[in-house]
Design brief:
This protein has one domain (2-64): Alpha-Beta Plaits (2-Layer Sandwich). By secondary structure, it is of the alpha+beta class. Helix 1 crosses helix 2. It contains 2 helices and 4 strands. It has helices at 13-24, 50-60; strands at 2-8, 29-35, 40-45, 63-64. InterPro entries: Cu-bd (IPR000428), Heavy-metal-associated_CS (IPR017969), HMA_dom (IPR006121), HMA_dom_sf (IPR036163).
Length: 65
């Protein structure tokens, strides 16, 4: 499964790494790609939920729109 999320507030590599780190810890997530210019996070894997991704992004200090 591949899902895209629009994330508000990311502006630098530190932001991207924080989001990648938190989302990457979700069970079932196999990959996380961050496009800073578009404010887009692409998550690949199996058996993860939107709520899990939202919580992980919030833990990193950002918001899924």
């Amino acid at each position: 499964m591949i899902k895209n999320y629009s994330v508000k507030g990311m502006s630098c590599e530190h932001c991207a790494n924080a989001v990648k780190g938190e989302v990457g810890e979700i069970p079932g997530v196999q990959g996380v790609d961050v496009d800073l210019a578009a404010g887009l996070v692409t998550v690949t894997g199996q058996d993860f939920t939107d709520d899990q991704v939202d919580a992980a992004v919030n833990e990193a200090g950002y918001t899924v729109e």
